[in-house]
Design goal:
There is one protein chain. This protein is of the alpha/beta class. It has one domain: Vaccinia Virus protein VP39 (Rossmann fold), CATH 3.40.50.150. The protein is built from nine helices and seven strands; from the N terminus they run H-H-H-E-H-E-H-E-E-H-E-H-E-H-H-E. A seven-stranded mixed β-sheet has the order 3-2-1-4-5-7-6, with helices on both faces. Helix 4 links the parallel strand 1 and strand 2.
Length: 265
């Protein structure tokens, strides 16, 4: 019952978020909240995340990279632009997928960057590698979903992820939680400092747009952003909220795969 209620609340929250972002105030907020050299996303992804993602995966134009929880599609398009790889974006929000497709078409990359409505953990993903920017935290039994994704990918089953942990786990505890899914962590970084700065950027952008006295729908959405960022700041200061960035592969050995010699290493 609780899981069903949580899923319904999340679905309503994201439906409302994407509806607000479609307003003039929402579009202006996205533009103003954009991190320097980063994609224009509704969330906490940064330029550092994008650089780390590309560096960890090093996809080639022959690879198909899966974006788990692609949102409005900006990161998927940026990954294609930087690497030439094909990108398949998946998101549960039809509104987000429609906007992502529109953006891909507007930039002339629809042949290489595709978007479909779907749940992250509901089907075999497939592809050369995958990434999930703050989306695994929104699914039930995230370690199990991570393990399923890793198994469905081409060897070595590499996944790059950022994860906002509301339990405040330390590094060893978080490492153990991820490893419990049957994957092997190649790298784990605490990027809570970047997360905190990104939260401040979003709050400042919301305040600037509010000063222009937007229409009611946009104003309501921006007030929600300010409430969210106030809660984030409070929880970070009390060490109840951390953001991690990590790369994981299959825990079992893969014949012929040498992590030191791999082009992904």
């Amino acid at each position: 019952m609780r899981d069903s209620l949580s899923d319904a609340v999340l679905a309503r929250y994201f439906a409302l978020s994407y509806r607000v972002l479609a307003t003039p105030a929402g579009r202006e907020f996205l533009k103003r909240a954009r991190a320097p050299d980063g994609p224009a996303v509704h969330g906490y992804a940064t330029a550092q995340d994008l650089t780390a993602l590309v560096g960890a995966m090093q996809p080639s134009p022959r690879d198909v990279v899966v974006d788990l929880g692609c949102g409005l599609g900006e990161v998927a398009i940026a990954v294609h632009r930087r690497t030439g790889s094909h990108v398949m974006g998946i998101d549960a929000s039809p509104r987000a997928i429609a906007e992502a497709r529109r953006r891909a078409a507007a930039e002339g990359v629809s042949a290489a960057v595709r978007f479909d409505v779907g749940e992250i953990g509901s089907a075999e993903i497939g592809g050369s590698a995958a990434y999930a920017l703050d989306s695994l935290m929104l699914v039930r039994r995230a370690p199990d979903v991570l393990a399923s994704v890793v198994r469905s990918l081409d060897p070595p089953g590499r996944v790059f992820a950022t994860f906002i942990d509301h339990r405040g786990l330390d590094g060893d505890s978080f490492r153990g939680w991820v490893a419990g899914s049957g994957v092997r962590l190649e790298r784990l970084d605490d990027v809570t400092g970047e997360f905190s700065e990104r939260s401040r950027q979003r709050a400042a952008a919301a305040r600037r747009v509010l000063r222009a006295r937007p229409a009611r729908a946009g104003r309501f959405g921006l007030l929600l952003v300010l409430a969210e960022e106030a809660a984030v700041s409070w929880l970070i200061k009390r060490r109840r909220l951390r953001r991690w960035r990590f790369t994981a592969v299959r825990a079992t050995s893969v014949p012929g795969y040498d992590p030191q010699g791999s082009r992904h290493g």
